[in-house]
Amino acid sequence: MAHVIIKEELYDKEFVENNVDNFEAYKHYILSEWDLAKASRYTGLKPFLIEEAAYLYSQAKRALILWGLGVSEHRSGSYTAMAAANLATLCGFWGKPGCGAMPLRGQNNVQGACDMGGLPYVLPGYQSVLDDTVRLRFQEVWGTNLPTSEGKTLPTLLKEALEGKVKALYAMGYDVAMSHGDIGSVWKALSNLDFFVVQDIFMPLSGKYAHVVLPSACLFEKCGTFTNGERRVQLFEKAVSPPGEALPDWLILTKLAHILGFNWNYQSPADVAEEIGKVWPAFRGIKHERLKERGIQWPCLDETHPGTSMLFTNGFPKGKVHLALAKYLPPFEEPSNQYPFILVTVRKLEHYNIGSMTRRCQTLMELYPEPVIDLNPEDAKRLGILEGAKVKVWNERGEAIFRAHLDKRVPEGLIYTDFHFESALTNILVSPGLDDLMETPEYKVSAVALLPLN
């Protein structure tokens, strides 16, 4: 699309001139490295459709690019997100109503977790760990020294656990033994740890490998905030008390800090929000009392500030935009004679992620009671697979058994399946491939074989 937009001069020339610092280099890269034939070969789309999309997008008065989590679950996932942002920049679709490029985050508070520093290379507010000034400000508020180097991604931590370099892990609300890609390798890594703590609302599969399991409160048993994809911070209130020994996550961590000799004095999540405002100016005006009235979009610079509904209305924080030279990387695995199908993991309407909550709902289990693979009827015919028959899906990493559903919408050579059930641990089949930059597992491209069991 960028090739067509630049070649046909469909881009916003004034916006690009005023806001982009490397347009000529980007233009040369796009025109020399990309064309419709190449894009068609990689995507499977007909060239005229790509060209038509480029015209429709670039000539729109307002355009917003939305993409789901699946985009990230490829080796080129990060580059695809960059390419989407590049398109918005080329066409001047920033700082205007109904415009931009926006990922639909995978869960309800992924945005909030990232905002609060849930990434290995930043502190809250996306402030670099490597910035001495930033680090000093946090040290003054937190009263402790901070590391001067970036942390490690989860795949790196698991790899080093397998090698014996990482000795302990603490998993909060993440069943790494079921959720991660290539979970056979994950199980070996977890078994190699000296100390593994699991903190969750239900006993996860990871609990099998844990030395300590801490029961935490679920959404309706605590209060706090969630931040959605439009940066809107929303308050949720406690509806019922947590059962047994379960506690809210913030209280578990506070008690643990006291045991370890740190004087954390939070009395409520509101105290945590107050501290966030001290280290991140964009959060300074977001208080729990204000959130009782309505959600607020950061940046919110003080208690009289209404929040910011739209970013970049007055330009970009760092001046001009640098267009990424996004590239395509082939998947880690391709179909072969031994493993002729590509497995794509998907979420089904009735269940959510690994099903740790939805499998406990009788109504949802009645609607979708067991793991299913969707495959093309022509593929099924060649293999002798009947509707409703059991099928073994396997590769060198492991195997899982599913019920077959024939669906002509599924392209030949592909199979779609859920990952909601412990009875069929789909992620044992997932490729060890990772996104080139963020190291997200390549859940969407794994080579497998099928064996009918009917």
UniProtKB/TrEMBL annotation:
GO terms for biological process: respiratory electron transport chain. The keyword Kinase does not apply. GO terms for cellular component: membrane. The keyword Membrane does not apply. Keywords: Iron, Iron-sulfur, Metal-binding, Oxidoreductase. Residues 341-445 form the Molybdopterin dinucleotide-binding domain. GO terms for molecular function: iron-sulfur cluster binding; metal ion binding; molybdopterin cofactor binding; NADH dehydrogenase activity. Residues 1-257 form the Molybdopterin oxidoreductase domain. This is Formate dehydrogenase, partial.
